## 1
Amino acid sequence: MQDLDEFRQEVRQWLEANCPPSQRQPITPPEQYWGGRRGSFPSEDARIWFERMRDRGWIAPDWPTRYGGGGLSDRESRVIKQEMQRIRARTPLYGIGLWMLGPALLEYGNEAQKQRHIRAIINGESRWAQGYSEPGAGSDLASLQCRAQDMGDHFLVNGSKIWTTAADKCDWIFCLVRTNTEVKKQEGISFLLIDMDDPGISTTPIALISGESEFCQTFFDNVKVPKENLVGELNKGWSVAKALLVHERKLMAEMGSDSPRKVVAPNEAARKYLEFDNGRITDAQLRSDLVDYNMQMHAIALTHFRTFEEKASGVRSAAPLAMKYLGTEAEKTKSELLLAIMGSRGLGWEGEGFTTEELDTLRLWAMSKAMTIAGGSSEIQLNVIAKSVLELPQQAEK
Amino acid sequence: MPLVLNEEQRLLRDTAREFLAGNAPVAAMRKLRDERDALGYDALLWRKMAELGWASIILPEAYGGLDFGFLGLGVVMEECGRTLAASPLFASAAVGASALLLGGNSEQKAALLPQIAAGELTLALALEETHHHRPTHISTTAVPEGEGFVLNGGKTFVLDGHSADKLIVVARSSEDDRNAQGLTLLLVDRQTPGLSCQRTVMADSRNAANLRFDNVRVGADCLVGEAGQGWAILEPVLDRGRVALAAEMMGCALEAFERTVAYLKQREQFGVPIGSFQALQHRAAQMQADIELCRSVLLQALSAVDETPEQLPMLASLAKAKLNELVKRVTNEAVQMHGGIGVTDEMDIGFFLKRARVTMQVFGDTGFHKDRYATLCGY
């Protein structure tokens, strides 16, 4: 523990000296750096901050140093995260390559794939999209139909993927594809890495209820994918897919509790928009809703802490499987609560008459509806708990 | 605070589970009820518990204590919650011992704590005066007379009130009857003249009593802490009690939940186990998620007693409110999911339902703790 304290001091000093003041402000979406061939730095300070963190090995502190990671332990990585949060340092690089593909590739990829892709992710050279869902395969993900035919020296991919986040800005996409139609659906799936510049790929953005279009549909029309881009064994992609989903769900679970996004916190909003009498919120219903939310978030934060400690001391528990469900449901509750607290000021869609924060709150409220659907809906999360934690009997699947 | 039990605490849990399964299963509690036992708990069981060190679990070694801290107490309380074991553990070893530890003078500690540690002396807290937990709404008076005090008033819902050897009475020695100023704690022998006791039979078949004080005279040596300054002791004592009780509620909820999940796997309708129905699976999974949250909250609150007492008020209210909600939901669902047999007396599941309702009222219901948490948050 003493070593960890020393490490914390070291991190604190380094961040103090190297994180530009402009990078210690709450971040808005246009200020985020996502990397990639088509990406650019939102500001000169963002570039400096990213490069310093990259050179220090702290873009991915717990990844091996030979691929550009920091080679640090879970506890040390957490210290970095905590110290960054303490000074409200911005995340220098965003991306699902960093959050989701990288960890899965480190576990399942071969040496050549790691050499080629891990460092490129850390260096911000490649931006990744996720090709999981299809129009006909949402919650029933394993029923996916996007086909990869073995053509000897390459795979020929045909089909489409939906909810491919920012696919129009991405360099690569990792895809679940069907490579065997004769077997049980989970046993005929493979995991492929596909270059978005390959001929035959096209992308259409999807307009959402939030007014944004961060999700796309991506089409594959006779796309040739080299054999070397298969991750893990042929027809064993479902294991890779599930391992990656664990990272995705962990990320989504923590989204609400540790992002320094520029959104109003319910307690601040209450002070700004509600009437108080003698230090108490006069609206009994809102006061009650607010305390329910605060208690739930307090419990969730403690549970994140517990799951980390359990992992570090080798104790198994059911908690990690519940966190995506709990975290995203709490985010949805928060958004509803903010709208209720802000009254008509929370309903502004655009333009004059509302602050940016107020407008953002409404857009985030709309986006929060997607969080309990993406990455395995809340209902799927409950199915998982029923099956793997409670071991309840399963109904025959059609 | 690591939020993970250490080796010693895990061992304590296993020992407690084994001991209670053999010595205080739910059937033992049923027997106490059916026989309308006068004491309300099994004296032999309490002696064995004391031999295991449970009566002294939070007490320092200097007083013959086991000194396992509140996490240790929590582990044992949780296991007692699983089998609904009736004993003076909560009223005496958790609440009473805490009051003396935090408020007693050195003579009181030296004289009483070793007896409490040995399980020979039991205590009860005489606090409530109305049908809701309102710890500062005290009308019972303690008027100074000579060197001592004269007590007048009435108390209700006093856990172990008819069986404890001594009572810690919360009385008012000055100011109005609805605030925290002017409260005085007095240690009163239950056999003192003028003190009358009416045992009340509650839903959980456990011990509670109404007490009446008619010119009860006690000496100066009975004062716990300073006269008029009782709140400074009472508040942390209540928080410790709330956290200990939350641990018992966790055990009660877990046992009811596990029995229910087992039943879902076993009971068949429409030719399949009812646990294969998604309508039931999702409700069970949501309860599992709530249990995970409550587990973290409980561990943090138990650790706070010994390590970060400045955070205890908020964590105790968080724990009590969350566990109140959990145990209510789980016991209701347990009965519903058991179907018809869930409402029969033959099935044990109803005992969990009834014990849960009593624990939910002790030392503050959900509304009380949400209000306190909100106030501590500054709104």
## 2
Amino acid sequence: MTHGTARNIFIFGSLLMLGILVWLSIDSVKAIEKNTPPVTSKVEAGLKVWQKYNCIDCHTLIGNGAYFAPDLTKSYSKRGDAFLRAFISNPPKPMPNFQMSDEELDDLIDFLRWVDGVQTNGWPPKPLIQK
Amino acid sequence: MKYSSQRVAYPYLLLAVALFALQIVLGLVIGAQYVWPDFLKDVLPFSQGKAIHINLLVLWLLLGMMGATYYIIPPESKREIHSTKLAMVQFWILTIAGLIDAGYLMAGFSEGRKYLEAPWPVDIMIIIGALMFLYNVGMTVLKSEKKTSIQAVLLTGLIGLSVLFVFGNVMVRNANFSIDQYWWWWIVHLWVEGTWELVVAALTAYVLMRLTGIPRGHIEKYLYLEVALVFLTGILGIGHHYYWIGTPKYWMMVGGFFSALEPVPLALMVWNTFQHLKESKTVPTNKVALNWLVIAIIGNFVGAGLMGVVHTLPIINQWTHGTQVTAGHGHMAFFGAYAAHIIAVVYFVLPEMRGVTNTFDQRSGMRSLWWMNLSMLFMSLTLMAAGVVQVYVERISGVSFMLVKNTYLTGWMIMRLVFGLTFTVGVLEFVYDFIRISKSKPMEQTLQNIVTGSFSSSGGAAATRR
């Protein structure tokens, strides 16, 4: 293979792949809007709370984050509103107590409810051995 | 060192090494928090320590790449850097940006996205710094008489990573968390499995060429093919992050297929490097730099390639996604592919800059190489093993996360901390060596040359192989 051929493969191959990625991304973003529950202003505010307290640098959400604390994707359906509220207001060690306002707590729980509704292609898989 | 403007690389490399050392201190703290969850938790909660650990990582690697670029662009372009003043202004902007970010994170603030915790004014400062850098390097390359493949690949990587940073930072600000994550990967994945690979491939090519004395044509022969394969597999390889985040099912096929091929270019780089080493007619005097370089290329293949490919298929990834397997792969990949490359460049640049390539004491460098590399290899294997245990006990058997972490994983986490401490030994030795070589006098070289009667240039390829 000549130098020029390799360079052309690099240039045109990369552009082709980038083109496919852009095309799939436009399609994916549309699909995500269908695969996720509607984003209300409270959900949006809840995402801001999630970000403000840097939750992702301990927890994971849809498996992405810091692996130091549990994944919270299905926490809403698993634990329920009241449990989450009590847990976050008075967390066991080593989780810090963030002293959130009632409004922040409401929004955060609404956000976790929203995440619970994301269509995740079956992730996380159910444990093979049930307790 | 032929061009005086190459000297501007020094503050960049100095700061990079300092931040690397600081990153490791933070790593020790959060590593200890895995074993003792209450350790320093009021001073530095895990989330803050983690954020600073990975922010410093990104910043020192970028500074290292910039320093390395400033060092190799003048000899590649056969002219001085367009403006050393601009390079220094850029250096201070990035330093201040780093300080603001560190203060912001220490105070417990965050923008709440992993790796992108920095506040937006810091992002703007980084973008300004990057633009100054690209302008400076771009002008130097444009004015050069003969354009080289190394210049082209390096610039493509640097421009690509800057464009992705700007584009990604705009796109992630979406009210829909899944869409936010979608574009977030455009920065994180397309940096580390795309554009950054180009930058280190170009740096490697240059350093290897200088160390071994192999003709440019041979070194550049496979460069385009390698980076072409990086992009051909890596761009759509992004799909392995789109299996479970609310994205369409086709990503399982696209992501699985392309990311399974991602080790191919990295394997080609390993093969190609060994071909070059066989072909080389000279024995490089700078063995530390050469050893770091070879280890970086192998580390890239093992850490990013192999340790990635073993959990990239959806059928496996559904179990390993978000476990310590990812953490193990992440450590070896960042270290092998990027940290080791920058350290290799530091060991090439620093002695040459001081004019002591043929005379500097390499024992310290070799010791730190072994401490760091063996420690990181074992740390990654420990984390991956912990991840497999986590998959069995938590994911498959359904035992709660916290119970698994506080019981079954503790042994592995203690081992990880031990390897973290031994890694630190290597880092301390490296920092000591960096200061020592920085202070060494080129006079010694002159004397040595007179004594041995050798007047070879300080390129590193001095002794001829028998």
